[in-house]
Amino acid sequence: MTEASSLAATPPAAMAWKGLRAPFRSRLVQWGMFLFTIVLIVGPLFPLVYQSFTDKALYDTGQSLTLENYANVFASSSFRTAATNSLIYACLATIVSQVIGALQAVLLERTNIPGRRIIGLFVLWPLFISPLVTAFGWSILYGGAGYITSFVKDIFGNAPWNLQSLMGMAVIGGILNAPITLLYCRGAIALSDPSMEDAARSCGAPPLTIIRRITLPLLGPAIIFSGMINFIGALETLSIPLIFGEPAGITLLMPLLYNQALGTISPDYGLVAAASMLLLGIVVLLLILQSRLVGDPQRYRSVSGKASRKTTFDIGVLRWPAAIFMGAYVTAFIILPMAAIFLRGFVSVLTPLIPIWEVFTLDNFYRLIEVPRLQRAFVNSTLLAAVGGALIAGLAGLVTLICYRSDFRFRGLLRFVAMIPQAVPGMIAGIAFLYTVLMVPGLAVLTTTLFIFVVAYAGRFLPVALGAIYPTLTQIGPDLDRSARTMGADWWFASRRILLPLMMPALMSAYILIFVQTMREYTVALFLVAPGTEVISITMLRAWAQGDVGIAAVMSAAQTMIIALFLIVTRRLNSPKRTA
Amino acid sequence: MKLVVNALTKKFGSVVVLDDVSFEVDDGEFLTLLGPSGCGKSTTLAAIAGLEKPNSGHISAGDAVFFDSRSDRFVAAERRNCGLVFQSYALWPHMTVAKNIAFPLELRKVPVAEQRNRVEEVLTLVELEGMGGRYPHQLSGGQQQRIALARTLVYRPSILLLDEPLSNLDAKLRERARVWLRQIQEHVALTTIYVTHDQSEALALSDRIVVMSKGKVAQIGTPREIYDTPSTPDVARFVGTSTLVDGTVEGAPAPGKLLHVRLGDGGTILVPANERLPSGAAVTVLLRPERLGLLASGEQPPDEIGCMVEVSILMRTYLGATIQYAVALHGIEVKVETQRVLDGDRAQLWVPAHGCSVFVRGASS
User: Fold this and answer.
1) Chain A partners of B192 at a C-beta cutoff of 8 Å?
2) Is residue A524 a contact partner of residue A455, using CB atoms and an 8 Å limit?
3) CA distance A474 to chain B (A)
4) Is B107–A483 a contact, with Cβ atoms under 8 angstroms apart?
5) For residue B282, how far is the Cα from the chain centroid?
6) In whole angstroms, how far apart are CA A186 and each of A56, B51, B207?
7) What single DSSP character describes residue B354?
8) Which residue of B48, B63, B78 to mutate against A (max A Cβ within 10 Å)?
């Protein structure tokens, strides 16, 4: 033993413990965040519910309660048609996305097709690019007067496809959602035990048989689960039906709702609210069905905790046609539409009949820089994504801590409430926000500032952010904050000094996700924009609607560039550092 | 500071994890909670630290009442001034060793200059001078364990709680850390509660041991009491190696309060009668392998009370310092540990009366 230290000499009283500095500080933070989240998420739903049961607009006086709005929705033939169309569209789009996604997962993850790493990079693009941009790109290439459509018509007299049909739209929608299926299947493959495949191999099954009999069936739960997500996503889609369906007279629910809420001079508030409520009900039912159908997805994961070696199957000569198929898919459906957008921004007209260099122009680009309205859209969107995204990521970090690392009495309720936005389609969240602003006096002031977006998006993206942060939090052993607590730190101090710093990488991922989502978002924004608070996605949608395809294209290109740049920079910054 | 734990009960749903747990720890005493995993020892520790809220009972340290179910008092962990060293060490990976140790001082608003002195001082105490600038992952397991202890000692907690702090070290290191830990504890003179499932650790370190089993206190006593006179076969089984054989009491107690117990095939042995047992009572006899003796056929018995039984040797296991024999005693397999080397398959088993303990069968388990 070393010399007698003063540790032994110090009587406990000398370092006596007088309890914590501010005893109510932790509770204050917890209650504050709890109430804020509840108001943020549940608050906007009240005006919507109220409006759906009243006979006059909610800013009027002298309303009386009625069920008439609901009766009107059911009586309306346009709603019935739109509902049927939406249902068909969603079914077809889901089939397309599941077939493509599962096929990609097996080919890219479990076989030895050449170039699978490069192809793997491209197939995920649709997740980062705005669905509006993708829709523009498809329209420019494969639409009725599209570049490739014209080219094919020139040669064969007719093009064998028509995107302005339910099937045509479903193909685009399916391709847009296929990456979600791919990610879920990839996750299932990563977690599955390779010994199941090895067992089949050792009893003599050839690779294709193993894929067909073992690999694919094991993907079943992932395919069903992502299928439900994609089905709900398809029901909620506005971009594709708005851009392809509406001009051809094929109306789906979301465009119908959009036109009823914003497109007419005197909207029927009650009708819109009632229809929104019904849609909300359908989505909630589907989500319940999803959880019943699959239950806990954990159940299907193999237990092996070891990171096991994954061998890929050699599918022999078949790998060449498979690679060519995947390459063609990526080129035609992902790279070319994107290239068309960039190209279209720099020509006055895009057609195979005129050589590109003859119609080259920088006009659109100059307008983008010079027109204040367009400029503002860029500044606003970037500011919103960069600063608002950081605020929302921080909020999500705190909410996650309260939900999963505190003894706050209503943490269970908070967990539930924080996930509610998942069940609310973007359009309906937008309508709910609009009605709240109309109804609550004083809120109108907010509509002239970007702050309203931050508030709306905070509610909107909370589940996504939580999903990004929670897994990391479970990796941080509970002893780390418990030890701080036994030493005398209150919850807030332990959270600030121990947990939040350790959660930084997860908060960063959440920030990246929210940044991209904010950039892409357009359904909520449709109901929030005002002169002075323009954002890119809405400005380009309006330009497209007015036939100003050049401006829409150049804005799409710029938006995509911002997202790409942001992802590259953050990836650099987020690369692992000191702590091992 | 004296710690009192009284009638502690904790349920998770319908599972009773702690059932009426009571014990006291004197000022400066080293008390060990010993038991197999799931016996409730860690839950007891968490309840003392304030990380787990029991359903009922009472916990107090000195004059401070930490928990009392009748007055509905529950003091939050951060206001108890306990020091808990976790099995996982729970060193914060984003802070240097010095920052880790200074954390509780910072909470107590100790001036920065003094913080620095205290950190150096405690690092010296745990023999890791000059390591303050390192990050936890740059240290070995043994060093991490000592830093975790340093971080707890630095603020002089009123009670030191140790949750299996040595279980992540390898066997060699563990034995050294054991001696070292006890020295430090005596040096800082803190009331200490130590949780472990390792009986040799408990025997070596403790002033007293609380043996826990299935959420209950099975026995409280000094290491010698626990080892020599276990209160139940369960405690006996858990502390030290043992062979338990069933038998029936035969006749009245012999002179010197000794009993005859008839075993499996009819042979009898002599055991001490620690309570009055009627003839015919079903009992379990505990035999410690190192207390038994094995002699070559025809050898004279040692000069103590006991009995000698002819046995056949079933198996020999060479353990280095000793040899473990499995022998058939009246039809029951019994383990004997001795340094004697015996060839052949016959031998004499010496069962000293005071090397046995006897329990009434079916009374408690």
Assistant:
1) none
2) no
3) 15
4) no
5) 29
6) 51, 39, 57
7) G
8) B78
* Residue in chain B nearest A491 by alpha carbon: B78
Residue type, A368: L
DSSP for B263-275 reads -TTS-EEEEE-SS
Of A5, A19, A479, which has the smallest distance from its Cβ to B88's Cβ?
A: A479
Say if A160 is an interface residue toward chain B (CB within 8 Å).
no
Contacts of B151 in chain A (CB under 8 A): 483, 487
Residue B291 to residue B314: CA distance in whole angstroms:
19
Contacts of A519 (CB under 8 A, 6+ apart): A130, A381, A385, A536, A537, A559, A562, A563
Q: List the one residue out of B295, B300, B304 whose CA is nearest residue B340.
A: B295
Q: How far apart are CA A550 and CA A295, in angstroms?
A: 48
- Predicted TM-score (pTM) of the model is 0.81
Residue environment code for A517-539, b if the CB has 16+ CB neighbours within 10 A, otherwise e = bbbbbbbbbbbbbeeebbbbbbb
What ipTM was reported for this prediction?
A: 0.77
A452 CB-near residues (< 8 Å, 6+ apart): A433, A437, A446, A528, A533
> Which of B84, B94, B122 is closest, CB to CB, to A7?
B122
Question: Which candidate in A3, A26, A483, A493 is best for mutational testing of the B interface (most B CBs within 10 A)?
Answer: A483
Chain-chain contact of B77 with A579 (C-beta, under 8 angstroms): no
Using an 8 Å CB-CB cutoff, list chain B residues near A490: 76, 78
Reduced 3-state DSSP string for A441-470? CCHHHHHHCCHHHHHHHHHHHHHHHHHHHH
Report the alpha-carbon distance of residue A68 to residue B218 in Å, rounded: 72
For residue B240, the distance in angstroms to the closest alpha carbon of chain A comes to 31
pLDDT tens by residue, chain A, 580 residues: 333 444 544 444 444 445 445 568 888 999 999 999 999 898 888 888 888 888 777 777 777 788 888 888 888 888 888 889 999 999 999 999 999 999 888 888 888 888 888 888 888 888 888 889 999 999 988 887 888 888 888 888 887 888 888 999 999 999 999 998 988 888 888 777 767 777 777 777 777 787 778 778 888 888 888 888 899 889 888 889 988 888 888 888 888 888 888 777 777 778 888 888 888 888 888 888 877 776 554 444 433 334 444 567 777 778 888 899 999 999 989 999 998 888 888 887 777 777 777 777 788 888 888 888 888 888 999 999 999 999 999 999 999 999 999 888 898 899 888 888 888 888 888 888 888 888 887 777 777 888 889 989 998 899 889 888 888 888 888 889 899 988 888 899 999 999 999 998 889 989 998 999 999 888 888 888 888 888 999 999 988 888 888 888 889 998 999 999 998 888 887 665 544 3
Task: Please name the residue of chain A whose CA is at the shortest distance from the CA of residue B119.
Answer: A7
Chain A residue closest in CA terms to B190: A8
One-letter identity of residue B177? A
Which one of A18, A486, A490 makes the best mutation probe of the B interface by having the most chain B beta carbons within 10 Å? A486
Q: Which residue of B has its CA nearest to A4?
A: B187
